[in-house]
Amino acid sequence: MSDIFGTMSAAQIHQGLASKEFSAAEMTDAILSGIDAADKSIHAFLQVTPDLAHEAAQKIDQAIASGDFESMGPLAGVPCAYKDNMNLRDTHTTCASKMLENYVSPFTATCVQDTLDAGCIPVGKTNMDEFAFGSTTESSVFGPTKNPWDQTRVPGGSSGGSAAAVAAGMVPVALGSDTGGSIRQPAGFCGVVGVKPTYGVVSRYGVVAFGSSLDQVGPFARNVHDAAEMLNAIQGRDPKDCTSQQSAKDFTANLDEGVKGMKVGVVPAFMESEGLAPEVKNAIEAAAKHLEDAGAELVEIELPNAKAAISAYYVLGPCEAFSNLARFDSVRYGYCDEGHKTLAEQYEASRAKGFGAEAKRRIMLGSYLLSANEYHNYYYPAQQIRTLITQDYQRAFEKVDVILGPVSPCTAFKLGEITDPATMYLFDMFTVPVNISGNGGMSVPLGLGKDSSMPVGAQLICPAFGDENMFRVAAELERCYGSNTVAPDFASAAQANASAGANASADGSASAAVSADDQKGGTR
Ligand code: GLN
Predict the structure, then answer these.
(1) What is the set of active-site residues?
(2) Residue 336 C-alpha to ligand 1 middle, in angstroms?
(3) What sign has the CA pseudo-torsion 484, 488, 489, 491?
(4) For residue range 490-508, what is the model confidence (pLDDT) as tens digits?
(5) CATH number, domain 5-270+280-302+395-511
């Protein structure tokens, strides 16, 4: 039974509950045992929350019995997982760090609460790179997550646990956060939809801050419609996050409209980028052709300052992280190394032992870059580049409705393949400009790459607060490439019927996944 639910979309689960094909209790039990089984090898979850899930399921079953379910929204009864940098009251929020290993949330993040208010069933917290620094989920102190399409590969990061949980059919939807690509890149690597809305569309209150001028929360799903429903639920002004904006759109509204008459920007310079894998280049060119065939006009645009984005991001990000992570001082928050004579010694020892290597690297870098002597050499010019990049997008969106390009220069790399941080940073070249400018971006699956047989994602970028534009184009790509694809090792026979056109790709099929029973499942 769990297989069946594992391959159902959020909308199908909601519909099944509405028509009383199954109860919320039954479905929740099956989802939880599906997580139990799949997570032994994938390790997408740091904590599973059966008590909270059962409690929420009971409320849904009561609503069904009393007839109130019909008036609940489309996410009522839908199981959801949350990246472990999001507070959910009475659960651990570890940020995959020793620093917060024992931290229990006294409150719930607004984005999480919004999904609960919409009737979602909270099933657990997902693995991530420590404090969201990374692109592979390998820096989690609790061990890496594996890519459900090939368990010798990374799921991407930093929201790798959320992406993998959705790709393996453990949950239909999940939330992640994206500071420089951490929703879009893992979505691309795992073959699911991942949305980083325009900065300000979703509240970050209760989400552990990394780079406050860059961070944005967004959904993962196996189809565009489910992702749109999730964004509908979490969008809007929150008095507790002063950067959040009024937003009350229906992102599902134009999914069936097609792209006729739309102008889709393509960036020739991106397609000539050094390091862009031929299979990714081919897939993006094919996607552009599909959109053209469907009636969109392709318009070549320039984003001349995008080439400076990595340099600017790896100044701005660490500067903000340095400041945000100052609160983990072993007194107010976090791991405490006890027994020291002075407070300074306690701070030093606690932070030295509580943070992992990448977190320390960014803290030290941020501290240096913001120091009196260096500020004008790094932080200040990075902010100037930020303005130039933002203006590039503004100019581009005078000509086009959406920009199409790659999410990442390649498909998912092997676990342990990239160890040099500077090399790893370069793989963020297509995602970070969008955080720097604040525009919205999303990753949409294009099937499997011809060489690696791993998922390839297309990135769609929208004008600020024009997120509906990218959903509309994403829906067109989905009509072409299929939806609701669960990674083959985790898909049941039921899935084959459920998703016509899914797995349709270039020519490949997924690589045979190796058996990997070496990971402890369930909790952390
Ligand atoms: N890979 C990027 C980084 O390491 C993005 C991280 C993120 O979006 N949280 O900074």
Answers:
(1) 83, 158, 182
(2) 27
(3) positive
(4) 986 334 434 433 444 433 3
(5) 3.90.1300.10
